[in-house]
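During the reporting period the student researcher (J.K.) took over the structure-prediction task from the postdoctoral fellow and processed the backlog of single-chain submissions. One of the processed entries is reproduced below for the supervisory committee.
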Amino acid sequence: MDGDTILTIGDLARRTGLTVKAIRFYSDSGLVPPIGRSPGGYRLYDLGSLARLELVRTLRELGIDLPTVRRVLEREVSMSEVAAAHAEAVDVQIRILRLRRAVLRAVAERGSDPQEMKKMHKLAKLSAEERRRLIREFVDEAFGGLDANPDFVAMMRSAMPELPDDPTAEQVDAWVELAELVQDADFRASVRRMAEQQAADRAYGDTSGLHHELTEATIAAVGQAIEAGIDPASPEAVPIVDGLAVRYAQTFGRTGDDEEELRRWLLTRMEAGGDPRAERYWQLLAVINGWPVSPTLAPVFSWFTRALRATGPTTPSSPR
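J.K. obtained the following structure tokens:
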């Protein structure tokens, strides 16, 4: 077949698999103009027209819009530029579809009603920056204007929810719960009280960071007590609480406090940080980000708080 081959619309349709109507549309729009007309007025094309039509069909099948197809044909943009831009667009579409699939699976597992599904989809489709902004606003409100523990605040600011491109239903569920949690006014007030307690401790002289060693000591001592079946209100709990009170006094620079003052401060501190939703916050972040989920410490600090109330001196927060 040589370069003088003349083709009709019917010939193009047979060679490309496109309909005559589609070819006529591309011809009318100027994307594949005829090279002339037959004596009977029928449009005529050549092999260059066939190649041009094949390119139009390929670009359209890849989802490229007609104005961009025209720019490619007129060589205003290169194929590589168009391919790169549309590959990025396809990546975005894939991420959206994966997210929708995860939301639908989460809805199926929850047995959600239409209203809850709508809310879940709205929260799940937030961009990564919108998710981070939601957390930053929460942290700013909870810790803003206070000289709280700087290491803890830095940890709060750095731990952002990074929902993967192909999240599981569990990760979507966790993000929706976290988003609802940080917007809950009661939880925000609870974290604010914890921040105020941290600020009060720093004003008293606490500069001891995140207190990992103290936490481990509390877990060990109280964990043994729980395992041994010691009731926090029993006489057997007194030496455990006394020993931990000494450790807390040493860590926070309160060795000069008398026993009643120390116990009152310690109980206030435990109550300020005892909201189980604070632990849930970190568990949800772990699920979203694919981190190991730490075992709950709620039983440990619940036991310790109850023991402080039962064995310590009378305080305004624990009447006896």
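The committee noted the following: The longest helix spans residues 79-110.
J.K. will present the remaining backlog at the next meeting.
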